[in-house]
Specification:
The protein has 250 residues and is an alpha+beta fold. It has 2 domains: 20-65; 76-238, Glucose Permease (Domain IIA) (Distorted Sandwich). The protein is built from 4 helices and 15 strands. It has an 8-stranded antiparallel beta sheet with strand order 11-7-8-9-13-5-4-14, with no helix packed on it. Helix 1 runs antiparallel to helix 2. The radius of gyration is 19 Å and the shape is globular. It starts with 19 loop residues before the first strand and ends in a 12-residue tail after the last strand.
């Protein structure tokens, strides 16, 4: 299915399949299985071994990497992460995405923009994807704390990694991978200068965390507080458009 074009008129073929396990997680799954076999086979402690083997399956599931169908409309900004929309705020972009870093990329302009925060639980897919196509201009790692990623202050206090993508027409989107209480490593798949397609895999965070997205000025979200969204598929916003959207939890 990868690379196949599908549309809303019925073109393409779709069928369910088991998601692949990302290479980054295979070693952890194998290690978990081997550890669980010690009490199960060597020590004959089934009451401990079987739950540990079940936990091993959970490790593999955490690193699952399903295929996604990426909307190709030029103005569409897609979600970089699976998870729950927990915060929508008007904020200044992070300093690391604004200041002149000497690379020739001007960064994001100063002034309030809309930040969408996506919380990823341990049950969500943790592969992050590019919200737009373009060139990676910045990848800035910032050490920090590991407080609850669901809190607003996590944007400024937690360990995090800022990424800036710029399209040929000058549109730039910044987003931030934020470690949480359990997460202890942010793994990038890209570096400055790389060209990425919209929805391309750009990194992951282990194990439960958050991603903040900074929309261009004058662009409002097309998602709601409390909405579950899907990386690479859910349209977060459309450039230059905005209107009040309301939903009812039920």
């Amino acid at each position: 299915m990868a690379g196949e074009i599908l549309d809303n008129q019925g073109r393409g073929e779709a069928s369910w399949s088991w998601p692949a396990i990302h290479p980054e997680g295979r070693k952890y799954g194998v290690i978990a299985v081997l550890i669980s076999l010690i009490p199960l086979i060597v020590l004959d402690w089934e009451i401990i071994g079987w739950p540990m083997l079940l936990l091993s399956a959970g490790v593999f599931a955490f690193f699952r990497d399903p295929e996604r169908v990426i909307p190709q409309a030029d103005d569409a900004i897609v979600a970089p992460a699976d998870g729950l929309v927990t915060l929508i705020r008007q904020v200044e972009p992070p300093t690391e995405l604004q200041v002149d870093d000497g690379s020739g990329s001007p960064g994001l302009a100063a002034g309030p923009v809309t930040r969408i925060s996506i919380f990823m639980s341990v049950f969500d897919v943790h592969i992050n994807r590019a919200p737009i196509a373009g060139t990676i201009r910045r990848v800035v790692y910032v050490p920090g704390k590991f407080v609850n990623a669901d809190l607003d202050k996590a944007s400024e206090e937690n360990e995090r990694q800022h990424i800036l993508i710029e399209r040929p027409d000058g549109l730039a989107i910044g987003f931030t991978q934020i470690a949480g209480l359990v997460a202890r490593r942010i793994v990038p798949f890209v570096k400055p200068g790389d060209m990425v397609a919209k929805g391309q895999r750009i990194g992951l965070i282990r194990f439960g965390s958050r991603v903040d997205v900074y929309l261009p000025a004058g662009t409002e979200p097309k998602v709601l507080m409390g909405q579950k969204i899907v990386a690479g598929e859910t349209i977060l916003a459309e450039r230059g458009t905005g209107a009040l959207l309301e939903g009812i939890a039920q």
